[in-house]
Amino acid sequence: MAEPLKLFFDRERVTMIGAALRAVEPSFAEAQFVAEASSGLADLELMGRGRHVMEAMQRALTQDPERALPQDPERALDVIVRSLGVPFAGEERGSMAPFVLLPHAMFVGTHGLLHHEASMRAIHAITQRFTGEWCIRPFLEREPERTFAVLTGWARDPSHHVRRLVSEGTRPRLPWAPRVRALVLDPTPGLALLDMLRDDDSEYVRRSVANHLNDVGRDHPERLVGLAGEWMREASTARAALVRHALRSLVKKGDAAALRVLGFGGSGGRALTATVAVTPRRPRIGDRIRIEAEVQNPGARRARAVVDFVIHFVKSRGETSPRVFKGREVDVAGGERVALGKTVTVADLSTRTHHPGDHQVDLVIDGAVRATARFDLRPS
After folding, report:
1. How many domains does the chain have?
2. How far is CA 168 from CA 103, 198, 219, 297, 344, in A?
3. 351 lies in which domain range?
């Protein structure tokens, strides 16, 4: 079993951070920092440990001038930047190693708010080695116009990590981060940045743009569909893939307007017939089930459609909650049929607990239920 993520921050990591800070600033109170940052970690989760280390870093950087640096957050930010090491060359981080810079990012977002220019320089450096997507958000709340002006320039930065931050840091509903309330209400400032990034050379950046748009669609579906329609005009293959990913949540909900943007939802999908079955019919909690479906085109004209599976999971009080499982896009010639399948675990997970009872499975074509099956889930 993999170790809990929180264990990443231990005395060894704290010692690494302290040594890096002392290497660029001899007056840094390294021993004080290591002692304080290492104490009390055991009872904290990952983000709590990051904040605990950040607070010890702040005390060692900015408190008693006899033992550390003068009480000057701008100088502390400069020391942090100089301690970071070299930027990443590739697009993917690939391990937990960059999380060693989580306290550095937290320091900027917490103690740099009154020092905008120095903090922007720090975030620009941090995001090329870890990520600045969380620590940019307090600045979007406090000084939105000034921060968006900086991000507009970063949208043309040579580093794909910085360009990705422009999109990822302004997501209205960024995971693990507080929502930027103004962007939830009105996504316009963020959308202006995305327009600059929609044809970025990096798939890493374009995927962030799609995720940002998917966030927008949760609160403003009409806005997303309208923009997606505009972007699909004379779209390259890469941009079309971005739009499909951006519309994924609306497509899973069967949103007719989103389906039309992607060329689905017309008479072709309605012409298809379908069957669906589940095996085993009486699985136990902890098993896997197999959903098998067949889609047939009885007409003469080719038909394209989006096919998904929906399982209505029984909840603790007997009510049900639907969950969509992606099937695929189908293109069925007249008189032909296509088989689809999906294996789904009904084991308890950290994100889902299963309950015994009668479960319904729907086969959904272009947002409409076209066939239904059932299985009786039994206790483990």
Report:
1. 2
2. 19, 13, 17, 42, 31
3. 267-377
